[in-house]
Amino acid sequence: MQADCTTITPTAKWAGLGLVFETEDEQASYETLVSRCHEEGLIQWSATSTSPHGNEDCGVSDASCNVDVAFQQFKLAQEIRGSFDFVAEYESIDIDDFDDARNIYPHWTGGRDRSGRPICFYQVGLVKDQSLERYNQNREPRDAACGATASLARRQTIMVTDYLTRFVFPLCSAMRDRPEPERALSSGMYVVDASGLTFSRLWGLRNLIQDFNFLLSTCYPEILQHAYIINPPLGFGAMWNLVKRWLDPRTASKFTIVPAADTLRILEESIDIENIPTLFGGNFSFQHGMQPKLESAMIRSLTLTPSLVAQLPPGPIQLRHEDGRMELVAVGTLEEKERQDLLGHLSLLTEQEAKIDGGITA
């Protein structure tokens, strides 16, 4: 469940929100959960959606979900977000602090996989030691376990992850050149480059991994569609056995370890060659920490300010609905001044136009 959705529309609006259920049981479970959350005052009904492109997936995203477990999870997620004003903080966070926090997490490249989901890359060996040290200084021991703490480390983690839910997922959901364009997207493809990883480095990442696992399983449980670990070093099997102890079993089950010799072949099964970094045999010039570089199909669907071209600016971005159109707005604080910079707006192509214009390949 996406924990920032405090306003939910009635049952008749599910399709309009991009929520597509596989079975009647799945829909019934979802509606039971939403009704219970409403009765407990965790969400409110509204006549219209606050985010039409996909962040209302507040609960049962698969038929096997236990409603009681999902309810307790959503309740805790709301308590975590209620421990600070996350909306105001997203709009006012210092841009340098945001990018410093972004360095230690997988981040969006600006591309999508063959299903239209955003691709997030992560090079473990290039995480800055200074950024990791600051993270450990700003965390609380409870961040890895329970409690609605509002430590600086946790707040910044939520800000970086909300970049996906507030901007990336809605933008990718709005693109019509993908399979099932009527279904909103709320998960991404993750690729982790483990080259150079040592036991010492892994142990230094343990707090980050455990804290992030707790937030993923509580506030963003379905944000990870699948993850590939590529270039595993010698002895990685023992390292992975340790990592699995820090992860929720459901999260751990979504990882596939790929031998170095099979990297390009495996990635090409899900990702077009244009969106695979040159480091791994593809055509995309990627560097850890770089700002998203929008793929060509997205650029054609956007009217951007001339200075942007295809590279997005640093810091948080929102996708807002103004006067019947979707606008990209850069927010955050730069040199103690809050910015509200209009980056451009989205001109939705029809599914046929997008495919003719060179969208996602099957």
UniProtKB/TrEMBL annotation:
For this entry, the protein name equals Cellular retinaldehyde-binding/triple function
Instruction: Name the domain of life this protein comes from.
Output: Eukaryota
Q: Which residues cross the membrane?
A: none
Under the heading Pfam families, the entry gives: CRAL_TRIO
Q: Which InterPro entries match?
A: CRAL-TRIO_dom (IPR001251), CRAL-TRIO_dom_sf (IPR036865), PI/PC_transfer (IPR051026)
CDD domains, sorted: SEC14
Q: Which PANTHER family match?
A: CRAL-TRIO DOMAIN-CONTAINING PROTEIN YKL091C-RELATED, CRAL_TRIO DOMAIN PROTEIN (AFU_ORTHOLOGUE AFUA_5G00680)
